[in-house]
From TrEMBL:
EC primary class: transferase
Reactions catalysed: D-fructose 6-phosphate + L-glutamine = D-glucosamine 6-phosphate + L-glutamate
Location of this chain's protein in the cell: Cytoplasm
GO biological process: carbohydrate metabolic process; fructose 6-phosphate metabolic process; protein N-linked glycosylation; UDP-N-acetylglucosamine metabolic process
EC number: 2.6.1.16
Catalytic residues (positions): 2 (nucleophile), 597 (for fru-6p isomerization activity)
Lineage of origin: Bacteria, Candidatus Azamiibacteriota
Complex and partners: Homodimer.
Residue ranges of domain SIS in the record: 280-419, 451-592
One Gene Ontology cellular component: cytosol
Main location: cytoplasm
Protein name (Swiss-Prot/TrEMBL): Glutamine--fructose-6-phosphate aminotransferase [isomerizing]
Amino acid sequence: MCGIVGYIGKQEAAPILLEGLKALEYRGYDSAGIAVFSKKREILALKAVGKVASLEEKILSQKKPLSGGLGIAHTRWATHGGVCEKNAHPHSDCEKEIWLAHNGIVENYAELRKALIKKGHVFKSETDTEVIGHLIEEEQKRGGAFEEAVRRALKKIRGTYGLAIFNAKEPEKLIAARNFSPLLVGLGKDEYFIASDPSAVIRHTRDVIYLRDGEIAILSRGGFRIINLDKELVHHAPQTVNWTFEQAQKGGYKHFMLKEIFEQPQAIENALRGGGLEVLEKKLGRIERLVILACGSAYYAGLAGKYMIEEYAGLPTEVDVASEFRYRQPIIGPKTGVLVISQSGETADTLAALREAKRKGALTLGIVNVIGSTVAREVDAGIYNYAGPEIGVATTKAFISQLTVLALLALFFGRQRKMSPVTGQRIVKELKNLPALVRAILKQNNEIKKLARKYKKYSNFLYLGRKYNFPIALEGALKLKEISYRHAEAYAAGEMKHGPIALIDKNFPSLFIVPQDSVYEKMISNIQEIKARGGPVIAVATRGDKKIGQMADDVIYIPKTLEMLTPIISAIPLQLFAYHIGTLSGCDVDKPRNLAKSVTVE
């Protein structure tokens, strides 16, 4: 949510900032803006509602070019104040000397704003962000360096922030500050970058420092230093981003989403090479209960993981929506393991739940995709799923990687507890075979597109599954909602008769996930109940299943694998089905309306 880019160096800032904003578009936004300190010592600031392309058009149409080596830029996802130019970032102080871009929420902005107005400050926007600029302005009146005014101002703020700030009176400095909102410093030669994530700077540097909460980075062309809110110097070793600029490009595909769907065989192979729990093997052997915390698709992956872990390890497992975990007085103790799942490693609700679990004394684990992210740093042990950059807002390969890692986790816990060597060997063999099975499904892309064309006319869908594939029904429905704006509901198939069946008629298709597994016959009964009421049926079924072919209106066939691994296989055709309905409907599948890739505010 929101994207921040900053630059200080010898190059022209504006092209670098625009390039960075384009790389961050996938995070979700509704407006964009830029501010550059020019070579003539002027501030050139522009804002636009809509896409970054609209901002770029404004820049190109200016008689006075945005020329200078210091600047900040921002994409806004509205929280306080409507979607309009005056609320777009960057914001400034009264004198238009201090400029800042902000990601986060200032919780005490109303009381701060009221106090500042009493002191004569004039506000131009409805945002909480503008308070920060005026606070810094007020602190500067007390004297001292610019960074000291920033530090004092930040100590008065309650809430979250990722900030990029500069001051026209001290143009040799660019300041970054973080508190519960992701922000990094990119390290170049006599130049430095600020960004919400590496994709904005990867073309210029792969060496980055991820700021921690309560830290302030002071950047200049000659170097940088990092302090905390107590003025203490902080030192961090730079990290190298483990992917390249080319990997974050479409590479010949029409959309990032399609590219990432087709990258899933490699993503599974990468996930299978992961590790990370060995350092806590003995402690993990002593836990008596596992709690999985996640949001969105990661939550659905966690639900599938619960089935895997309980069946193969006999370890009691529960799954919570991370945003609700803190509000139900969870029973957590030293023999509880808490596993958080987050693609970005920066999901605000998941981080808050993780910190609550740590406060209660739990042993904490993480499944994350972004190396060096906050979740990765704060858990006791973690597993990277190594999916590579995922630019499409609706997750595909990261979700499949999470499922793969959860299967490995079930294997890990199972070997510690009750699993026989023969069972373990069989799971390993089937895991290694998964990339080939996924490639076989991807070969059906054209057939699935034809199916999507047939069902594009429908506005409502019901997704149904049981056991391992109930979470995949949830994920399939979410995908369709996200990228085609269709109404889709998902239920455990046994719940169909408890309400949803009232919706069924010839205009309400049902999509069943019905592999030949332990609940196959019950799913067959559910299909018959839908057909008896005239509802169209699409089935995702095991290759060679002739019974399904006689019952369903349309069938997508998937290869046979272990029951615990069917979620990984059955999710693929649902991704393609949603993708094609979205594209055939003219939707922006890479950047769906109102959505953000990384939800960094609660």
